[in-house]
Amino acid sequence: VLLFISIKEAMQKGSAKVAVRGWVYRERKSNKVAFLVLRDHSDIIQCVLKKEKFEEQWQDIDKLLIESSVEIEGIIKKDERAPTGYEIEAEKINIVGYADVFPIKKDQSAELLLDERHLWLRSRKMTAIMKIRSSVFAAIDDFFRNRNFYEVAPPIFTPNACEGGATLFEVKYFDDKVYLTQSWQLYAEALIFSLEKIYCNSPCFRAEKSKTSRHLAEFYMAEMEMAWVDLNQVVKYAEELVEFIVKRVLEKNSEELKILERDVSKLTNIKSPFPRITYTEALKILKEKEGLEIEWGKDLRTVEEELLVKYFDKPVIVTNYPKEIMAFYKPADPKDPKTALCFDMLAPEGYGEIIGGSQRETDIEKLIEGLKKEGENIENYEWYLDTRRFGSVPHAGFGLGVERVVRWICGLDNIKDAIPFPRTMLRKSP
Ligand code: NSS
Fold it and tell me: Can you give the pLDDT at residue 211?
């Protein structure tokens, strides 16, 4: 018996008898012949079924619509006219599942495609994106494991806020309430005391009331935390991680990038180190080059980040944001105490912030002061404060927004296409 192989493997054989299976991607029939373009995870291929060979099955073949599932055996050969350069002359067909009329036609609105997401995921575009996403996940694991980081799973239910109360999702928890995690960070800070170098790639949740192209309510954050390092040392990891991910996708996914029509010349130059500027220097660039006056102390908005990155063809690292507007765990820079020892990495081409990180405050009094200022109940943070009571050490870390990176690498208009089933303020199904 002939074993099933993928369409790509069949095409690599060039000319042979092969068995493939998949879904009808396109179909065209006359009363003499049926052309079925078959799709599987690997590629598409045109299959030709001549009626003279399928007299008995012809009625059934005639009923095959797009997305029917079939198994086909036949002779593969090169054919310039076929969509992927090869064609299978079918000798046998086994119809596995018929399809109703497929609800997705050409040129449908983004909203309809999101309503039909469970079916739209079968498109070549979404398939290409999901393959790249898979490469990004693997690259993150390889990067940290190659550098002897331990992988740790943080809790998703948490009693604490980490990135401010405004975006917390509240969950009924037996007779009590908890929140869905915004970041593993507070737990990571406890775990470095045993493991020292740790990472995770885990779901995070934020009730973002924004309808932008870069915010999800549920997303993956790849986070790292290290003992015995300062801001500069973790920034270096962040640069190398991003370089590593991009390089991996270029190696593994050139076909997918082509399907997405991504201009890869914008990715081949992503080599570390990346340019580093301070927040104060960023304001200066915006003023001098864009005539944009931003009051010192205000966070950079999306539009301002977009204008800033125009001047760089690599990701830009912005350090030393105003201490005042930063989360409680970011320490003041002793050299410039109005600013914090923190950084954001902004992607090129206007794709926005992809990484946020910082050195961590080790002074317990300053942490308590910061938490109070954010209106937090100190009692809930006692366990976290213990990390500073028992052998506190300098440490730092960052979080990379996985969908933000996938969006940038794929060149997508909206972050929603970087995750299979997006959740935003306005979308929670399918
Ligand atoms: O808020 S962050 O900037 N930083 C933290 O949460 C730190 N606690 C991480 C750490 O130091 N361990 O978020 C980090 C990144 C940010 O740069 C984005 O790339 C991404 O997480 N992020 C998001 N992606 C998609 N949707 C939303 N809503 C979102 N929020 C953050």
Answer: 82
**How far, in Å, from the CA of 107 to the mean position of ligand 1?**
33
* pLDDT of 420 strictly over 90: yes
Dist. CA 225 → ligand 1 center (Å) = 14
pLDDT in tens, 150-190: 999 999 999 887 787 889 999 999 999 999 999 999 999 99
For the CA of 225, the closest atom of ligand 1 is 12
What's the 356 CA to ligand 1 centre distance in angstroms?
A: 6
pTM: 0.96
**Interval between CA 223 and ligand 1 midpoint (Å):** 9
Q: Which ligand 1 atom is at minimum distance from the Cα of 397?
A: 11
3-state SS string over the chain? CCCECCHHHHHHHCCEEEEEEEEEEEEEECCCEEEEEEECCCCEEEEEEEHHHCCCCHHHHHCCCCCCEEEEEEEEEECCCCCCCEEEEEEEEEEEECCCCCCCCCCCCHHHHHHCHHHHCCCHHHHHHHHHHHHHHHHHHHHHHHCCCEECCCCCEECCCCCCHHHCCEEEECCEEEEECCCCHHHHHHHHHHHCEEEEEEEEECCCCCCCCCCCCEEEEEEEEEECCCHHHHHHHHHHHHHHHHHHHHHHCHHHHHHCCCCHHHCCCCCCCCCEEEHHHHHHHHHHHHCCCCCCCCCCCHHHHHHHHCCCCCCEEEECCEHHHCCCCCCEECCEEEEECEEEEEEHHHCEEEEEEEECCCCHHHHHHHHHHCCCCHHHHHHHHHHHHCCCCCEEEEEEEHHHHHHHHHCCCCHHHHCCCCCECCECCC
Residue nearest to atom 24 of ligand 1 (CA): 401
pLDDT digits 0-9 by tens, 38-70: 999 999 999 999 999 999 999 999 999 999 999
Q: Which of 183, 299, 354, 417 best tests ligand 1's pocket when mutated (most atoms within 8 Å of CB)?
A: 183
Residues having CB closer than 6 A to ligand 1 are 162-163, 183, 185, 206, 208, 215-216, 219, 221, 223, 353-357, 397-399, 401, 403-404
Give the per-residue pLDDT at 37.
97
Find the 97 Cα to ligand 1 centroid distance in Å.
Answer: 43
